[in-house]
């Protein structure tokens, strides 16, 4: 699995219906965090964020996602320990592939499951789809129950108006 980002960072869809707001809301509700290296060339800044990683101020070069901020902090701390000798002015002087390996090793060392950016986007889209299916099923059930509640009333014969109507 690769965590390196090439080109623009894919984020949520910009549909004409909600502009990806539903996906972003799901993302925020679950509290996912990104562990990243950002910067140019071999001067990379290590960090984590629970927000849109496009807003970290520099182009993200590597992004790995984990379940919450506590896990992200543990992985970042372990990466900083692994690469401590390469730290120069708050930046790590490492090639991208070494930074990527450091995140993988650190996550394994601290027992945190990480996933790639692409896999995380697919996961969140899957959650959205699942939620839409649940809403649709709930709406169909309510409609079905409302129809069943009306049927016995409309299927019963009208009461006679007087005794002469009963032969």
Brief summary:
By secondary structure, this protein is an alpha+beta fold. The chain is 47% helix and 17% strand. The protein starts with 20 loop residues before the first helix and ends in a 12-residue tail after the last helix.
Structure description:
The mean pLDDT is 82. The termini are far apart. This protein has 4 helices and 6 strands. The chain has a 6-stranded antiparallel β-sheet. It has helices at residues 21-30, 69-82, 96-110, 117-155, and strands at residues 33-40, 43-49, 60-66, 87-88, 91-93, 115-116. It is of the alpha+beta class and 167 residues long. Helix 1 (21-30) packs across helix 4 (117-155).
Please give the structural blueprint.
Blueprint: H1 21-30, E1 33-40, E2 43-49, E3 60-66, H2 69-82, E4 87-88, E5 91-93, H3 96-110, E6 115-116, H4 117-155
Q: What's the main sheet like?
A: 6 strands, antiparallel
Mean pLDDT value:
82
The SSE order reads HEEEHEEHEH
Total helical segments: 4
What Rg is obtained from the alpha carbons, in whole angstroms? 27 Å
Number of separate strands: 6
Structural class: alpha+beta
CA(first)-CA(last) distance: 83 Å
- Quote the beta fraction: 15-25%
For the largest beta sheet, what order do the strands appear in spatially?
4-5-2-1-3-6
Shape: elongated
Spans of at least 5 consecutive residues whose pLDDT stays below 50 are none
Tell me the helix content: 40-55%
């Amino acid at each position: 699995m690769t965590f390196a980002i090439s080109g623009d960072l894919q984020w949520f869809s910009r549909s004409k219906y909600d502009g990806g707001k539903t996906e972003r809301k799901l993302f925020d509700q679950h509290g996912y965090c990104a562990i990243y290296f950002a910067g140019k060339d071999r001067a990379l800044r290590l960090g984590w964020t629970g927000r849109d990683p496009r807003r970290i101020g520099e182009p993200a070069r590597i992004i790995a996602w984990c379940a919450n901020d506590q896990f992200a902090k543990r992985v970042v701390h372990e990466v900083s320990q692994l690469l401590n000798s390469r730290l120069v002015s708050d930046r790590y002087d490492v090639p991208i592939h070494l930074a990527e390996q450091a995140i993988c090793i650190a996550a394994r060392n601290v027992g945190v499951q990480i996933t790639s950016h692409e896999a995380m986007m697919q996961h969140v889209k899957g959650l959205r789809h699942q939620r839409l299916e649940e809403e649709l099923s709930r709406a169909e059930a309510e409609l079905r129950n409302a129809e069943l509640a009306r049927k016995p009333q409309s299927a019963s014969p009208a009461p006679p108006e007087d005794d002469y109507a009963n032969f």
